[in-house]
C-alpha cells in the first residue's frame, strides 16, 4: 500500500548544502543534523509503517531561532514539518524528502507556575506528565492524560488535540489550554489567549488546537491546571453481553453522572490484558467496564452506590469496587497496558481511532463484529466508552500475504461505519496521513475547500506540513485567491516501509 | 462621540429598487421590509446609543433562501449584517446604510430532540430559554443562561459566545454547541461538527462561535443539553471589605470547589437591587457574594459547609444559606434585576464588560474605585466573580454636558486596566462597534492582521458585517493576497444617536 505525498521540489534538493549552511547560521552548534545516520530517529513517528528521511533536521532552542528558520524557509520556498516527541499515531510528523524537520525537543523549560490563576506556562517540548509533576506537590495536576503521557509533549498534544481516559469529565487538550505563542511560516510571532478563558476576536486557540502542524509552530503554551480530586475510586463491572455494557454506559451518563473515566474492553482485550498484567479481570465476561468516580469522599461513596445499581439493572454479572488506592491502580493497569498486551497475542495489530455518538455504541460494536467476519481478522476492542471514542485493534500477521492490506481495508471500513452512524473519523489521534484519504467520507468538497481556505490564511504557500490531513492539495489560488506561486504541488507516491 | 463606519457604496444605493425587487424574488410575501417606518425596529441593537437604518431588511425562513440572498449579495457586492433578536450590547447588529439587514427571526423551529445523545437540533432564531423549555419535562436543560435568555436567540449566542451566571461551571456557548450549518457569503452551505464532541479537521465551530457575524450566517445549531442537577442551594455572604470578598472567591476556587454560580455585587449595586426587589440583602456590607452549589444532595450539603468555613476564614460578616427553592430564587432575584435596579438610581448608566485573571480581582476593584474618583462618576459593580468577568455599571446623566463623554472615557479606561492586568477587553458581550477601537490595546498589528486573514478565508470581499470588531479595515489584498476588489473601503463617521 502506498500513500501519495507532495512531489519533492528538485530545485530545493539541489540547494541542500546551501540550505544547511544557512540553517547552521541561525541555529549554531548541534542544532542542525544532516547526516543520514543521525537522521534515522526522525524518519517516522508512531505510525511506523511509513518512513521517510527528511532533507535536514533543525533543533532550535529559542522562539527567535524558530522565527528565523521559518522566515528563511518561507523566503526560499522550503517545506517544513514540525515535530514534538514523535509519538503521533497518524503520521502527522512524517518528514518530507525535500523538507526541514523542525524538532521542538529543546523547548523543555517550565517558564511559570501561577497557582493563583491556576495556570502553568511551559515550552512546547515539555512532556505532558512533567506538567503534573511540577505542580503535584501543591495538590494540582494537568488533566488530559494520553497513554503516551510520559513521552508525548504538550506541543504535540496541541497539534493532535490529545485526550486520555479523563477527558470525559475534564475535556480534551482544547478544553485545558488557555493560550499560546505561535510562529507563523512568515516568521511573525503571535500571542493567542492568556490566563483568562475568554478572549476577544476569533478563537484562534481553538483553530490551532488539533491543526496537526499545518498552521504554525507553537513556541509557548499556557495550560490550565486543576486541583486533584479529594478521592478517586473505581468499579470493575463485567457483562455477558456487550450490548448490555453499552446500555450501562448510556444509562450512567443519562442519570447525570459524569465519571472521571469510563473505559470498556471486550473479551479478546480482557484476556490479553489479564494474561499480561494479572489485574484480576473476570475471564467469563464479554465486556468489562472500568468506571472511576472522583470528587469529595462523601460524593464518591454515593455515586458508586448509584453506578452499582444502574449496572445491576443493566444485567452486570460481576462487580468489584476498589477499596484502596493500590487496587484502583491495579484495575487501571490492565486497561493502560492493553495495547502492548494485544501485541503479545498477535504478530501485528492496527490501532484504529474513531468516534460515534454514545447512543450508537451497541450498533457500532455489532457492525465491527460483522466486519471482523467479513475480513476474517480478529479484533480486540478497547475504548473510551464514556465519550464514544473507539479504539478497535485489528489483529493480523504482516508475514501472511495479503493480511496487511486486508487489515487496512478493515480499518477504513470501521471508520466509514463511525461516520455513517453520525460519528467522526478520529477521536484523538488526528488525521495525519493515516486517515487523510478518508476525509471525503466525512466532509463535502465545499467543507474541505473552506478548511483549506483557513489553511491559506495562515500559510498561503502551503509550506507547513503539506500532504497531511487534506486528501487533495489545492493551491490557495484555486480557492478563490489570486495568490500565485511558482511550483505546482502534485502528489508523489511514498511506499509503506 | 462618533464611530467611523465603512463609507456607503453609492453605486449600491443607486440600485436600491432593483436590489429590493431581486430580494423579493428570493423571499416572497412579507419577507422583505423596505419602508422607513417598518425598518425602525431594526435600526439598533441593545447598544441603543448608535442607530442607523439599513438599506433593506430581509427575513428569510429557509436555508435555501439564506443561501440565495447571500449568493445574490456576493455577486453584486452588497454588504450584509446578520441579526438575531438584536439584544447584543456591543452594537454587533448595527445596520449599514448600504447594507442588507438579514434577520433570522423566522428560523424558530426545534428540529430534533435526541435525549440518547443529549443533543438538540434547533434553528438559529429559537430563543435560549426555549431550548431548556423544550427538554425540561425530561429533566434536562441548556446550560448557558445570559440575562437576556427570554429574548436572545441561539444564533446570537453563537455570534457573541454568550455566557451567564452558570458558565463558571458549565462553560460558555462555545463549550455547549456541538455543531452547526452555516451559509458562507458565496451562498455555499457547510456543516460543522455534529453530535460528537470530537471532530476531524480544523475546529471551525470554535472559530464561528464568537465571530460576531463576520464569517457566515448560521442556519442550524446542534447544542448539548445537560441533566438538571439533583439539588441546588445558594449562600449569600456579606463582607465589610471588598478585598476580602475577592480573596474568598479565590480561596473557594483554590480549594477545588467549582460552584454552579458565584456572583459578586458591591455596595451601590446591593442597595439598588435591595430597594428594587427586596431580596433581603444586608445593607451594612461593602460586598455580597451569591454562591450556588449544585449536584447530588449529599455533595451540596458538604460543599456548603466547606464554603461557609472558607468565607468565615476570609472575614465574612453575614452568611445566609437558602433552605428552600423559593429562597434560593429570591437570593438570585436581586442579582438578576441588578441592571434595571441601577437604572432606577441613575438617569443613565453604561454597562461595561471586561475580564481579568481571577487572582487580580482586588487590584481591579481598587483601580476602578480610583478611576471613579478621577472621572467624578459613580460606579456599581456587578459581576461573574468566579470567572473574573466584570460588569461595572458607570452612572451618569446624559443631560449634564460632558458626562456622556466622561462616562465613555471612564469605560475605556476600565477595559485598559483589564488588559493591563492580563485580562481581556470583553467577557461575553463581544467587541462589536463598542470596543472595536480598543482592540489595539490588546492585540498587536501582527495579531490583528492574522485575525483578518482568517476573516478573508471566509469572506474575501469583506461583505459580511464590515466595520465591526476590527478597528482598521484591511482589504484582503493588503494581507498578502493578490485578490483584487474594485471599491476601496474607507471609514465614514456615524454619529451616536
TrEMBL record, chains A, B:
<dbReference type="GO" id="GO:0071949">
    <property type="term" value="F:FAD binding"/>
</dbReference>
<dbReference type="InterPro" id="IPR036318">
    <property type="entry name" value="FAD-bd_PCMH-like_sf"/>
</dbReference>
<feature type="domain" description="FAD-binding PCMH-type">
    <location>
        <begin position="50"/>
        <end position="228"/>
    </location>
</feature>
<dbReference type="InterPro" id="IPR016164">
    <property type="entry name" value="FAD-linked_Oxase-like_C"/>
</dbReference>
<dbReference type="InterPro" id="IPR016169">
    <property type="entry name" value="FAD-bd_PCMH_sub2"/>
</dbReference>
<dbReference type="Pfam" id="PF02913">
    <property type="entry name" value="FAD-oxidase_C"/>
</dbReference>
<dbReference type="InterPro" id="IPR051914">
    <property type="entry name" value="FAD-linked_OxidoTrans_Type4"/>
</dbReference>
<dbReference type="InterPro" id="IPR016171">
    <property type="entry name" value="Vanillyl_alc_oxidase_C-sub2"/>
</dbReference>
<keyword id="KW-0274">FAD</keyword>
<keyword id="KW-0560">Oxidoreductase</keyword>
<dbReference type="InterPro" id="IPR006094">
    <property type="entry name" value="Oxid_FAD_bind_N"/>
</dbReference>
<dbReference type="InterPro" id="IPR016166">
    <property type="entry name" value="FAD-bd_PCMH"/>
</dbReference>
<keyword id="KW-0285">Flavoprotein</keyword>
<protein>
    <submittedName>
        <fullName>Glycolate oxidase</fullName>
    </submittedName>
</protein>
<dbReference type="InterPro" id="IPR004113">
    <property type="entry name" value="FAD-bd_oxidored_4_C"/>
</dbReference>
<dbReference type="GO" id="GO:0016491">
    <property type="term" value="F:oxidoreductase activity"/>
</dbReference>
<dbReference type="Pfam" id="PF01565">
    <property type="entry name" value="FAD_binding_4"/>
</dbReference>
